[in-house]
Specification:
Elements lengths: L5 H6 L2 E4 L1 H14 L12 E7 L4 E6 L3 E5 L4 E14 L2 E12 L2 E4 L2 E4 L6 E5 L5 E5 L19 H10 L6
Antiparallel strand pairs: 1-2, 2-3, 3-5, 4-5, 5-6, 6-7, 6-8, 8-9, 9-10
Amino acid sequence: MSQVTEEIKSKASEVHYGNELCEVKTQLLLSEVGLPNGLLPLKDMEECGYVEATGFVWLKQKKKIDHKFEKLGKLVSYGPEVTAFVEKGKIKKLTGVKTKEMLMWLTVSDIYLDDPPTGKITFKTPTGLSRTFPTSVFEIEKAKDVKNAKGENLAAAANCAKEVEVKEV
């Protein structure tokens, strides 16, 4: 059963449909909160959304996927629906994500950067176990070149919007 109700969707600041747009929006959101942009490498996404007031994020994909972070040699499973609360440098109450440690799959519930910044990111389970890795292994080199229906580059447009600064005269 989905955790994302129609009530939550009605409160959403952003709701997007389609894999390419959701991938770009996910990477941009992660970058905005200071987390590595390759942290959630979901495929075949159908929907993603963000409730700015609470920091609630959801990502829906057609089916669960397993992704191996090659630089770490770690296998991570992403369910058909991933939800979380995001804030600067943190992902809390994460659902739908598991990592394989030895022979067991462990649920990941929290992800956070060290404060003060050390270039490390920590993954925590509900039982209190945690592992820390360099943030660089979760970075994607280049944002995807995705265009909207008007032919505008979405990643470039989003980045330009961030760089525009309004000054009073």
